[in-house]
Structures are given as structure tokens and as C-alpha cells.
Amino acid sequence: SLTDSPVILSILQNWVPRVSHYFDKEHYTYAGHQIVIQESIEYFGAVVWPGALALSQYLESNQEQFNLKDKKVLEIGAGTGLVSIVACILGAYVTATDLPEVLDNLSYNISRNTQNVNMHKPEVRKLVWGEGLNEDFPVSTHHYDFILATDVVYHHAALDALLATMEYFCKPGTVLLWANKFRFSTDYEFLEKLRIIFNTTILAEFPESNVKLLKATVREN
């Protein structure tokens, strides 16, 4: 229910001091692993946004509540891949998806940070919200335990397609975890639409970064 009071958290400064002087590399530590993320200033999707830090931190700290070990996890709008890498380290079968122009950097970060760890090999795939879902991810063979999304809602034209994509992948038993920095009225409008379709709970809020972390499950009639 929406009356549950969310946990109030702050995003921990758990990235380590840079050893390199390049502006495009960020070093983080989650679940006992150092993660090096290469960012790209060319695309929105290739920068680590606060929602990704919030969800990574939450998954690391709440492994009993959300046990990802051997679970099938789909990240939509994976960006730099930080959340997918953390999910992979926590033992999930991960499919990280994003737009075609982001996939090179995403693949690079994911392979670089997961190659020497004993875990399920993650997959990187193209996913344009609302397009070709039945063809590329047929329901008969693609069922996910968790859908992860961070900072996918901002001022862009694909919000309806994003909602349709969330609805497509969220089957009975699937948990959607969405962390977002709330900046605009459109973000709150999207949340209201989400609440019409799904059972929604705010799990945590990170007030100084305006991030809310929500859990959504499909309404079962």
C-alpha cells in the first residue's frame, strides 16, 4: 500500500578516489567489488545518474528482501551498466538493454567488470521502448523475476512507450524496481499513470538527491 512509510536514506559516497585523471572513469565499490565505469558525454544514457547509485546501494543492502541469486533480471535503459553489474555480482542472470547507440559503452563496462567474477554471464541487448517487444522478447520464452529501471523518466517523448514496455514485461510474479530523480511535473504524472496500472509502494527516498525508489507489481484480477 502507499501508506507504508518509505525508508529515508542518503546515497553513500562509496566511490573511491580516482586513480586516473580521465574525466570519463568513475570507481565504485558495491558488494565487495570495485567497479570501474566508463562514462560518455555524448549520450544521456552513458552517464551514471543518481537513481543508479540509489538502486545499486539498495540492492546491496537489502539482499534478504530482494534476493537476486539465480533470478532472471532485465534492466531497461541500462545506460552505463552500473545497476546490471551490481545485479550480476549479486548472482542474477542479467539482461541489460538500451538504445543501439549506447550498447558499445554498455557492453564494454559490463564485460570489463564481470569477466573475472564467478557468476552468470550477463547479456547485453538492444531494446527500443515499445518497439518489437513480441518479436525480440517473446513472452513464451522471456519471463523475468525482476525489472530494474533507473532515471528512465525525465523530459522526453517516449514516456508512453516506456510505460507500455514496463507493462509488457511485468507478469504476475515479476517485481519492478524503479529509482528516479524527481525533477519535473512529468515525472509525477508518470508515477500517477504507473499507480493506475500497478500495485505501487515507495520503498525508499533519498531526499538530498530527490530520488524515490518504487516497487511495482502487476494487479492480479
Description of the molecule:
The chain has one domain (44-218): Vaccinia Virus protein VP39 (Rossmann fold). Helix content is 27%, strand content 26%. It is built from six helices and ten strands. Residues 16-23 have low confidence and may be disordered.
Summarize the structure.
The chain is an alpha/beta fold. It has helices at residues 50-61, 82-89, 103-114, 133-136, 159-169, 185-197; strands at 7-8, 25-30, 33-38, 72-75, 93-98, 123-126, 146-150, 175-181, 198-206, 211-218.
Largest sheet: 8 strands, mixed
CATH hierarchy, class: Alpha Beta
CATH architectural arrangement: 3-Layer(aba) Sandwich
Computed Rg: 16 Å
When the domains are counted, the total is 1
CATH topology type: Rossmann fold
Low-pLDDT residue spans: 16-23
The CATH homology group name: Vaccinia Virus protein VP39
- Bulk shape: globular
GO biological process, one term: methylation
InterPro entries: Methyltransf_16, SAM-dependent_MTases_sf
GO molecular function: methyltransferase activity
Keywords: Methyltransferase, S-adenosyl-L-methionine, Transferase
List the helices and strands and how they pair.
Elements: E1 7-8, E2 25-30, E3 33-38, H1 50-61, E4 72-75, H2 82-89, E5 93-98, H3 103-114, E6 123-126, H4 133-136, E7 146-150, H5 159-169, E8 175-181, H6 185-197, E9 198-206, E10 211-218
Parallel strand pairs: 1-9, 4-5, 4-7, 5-6, 7-8
Antiparallel strand pairs: 2-3, 8-10, 9-10
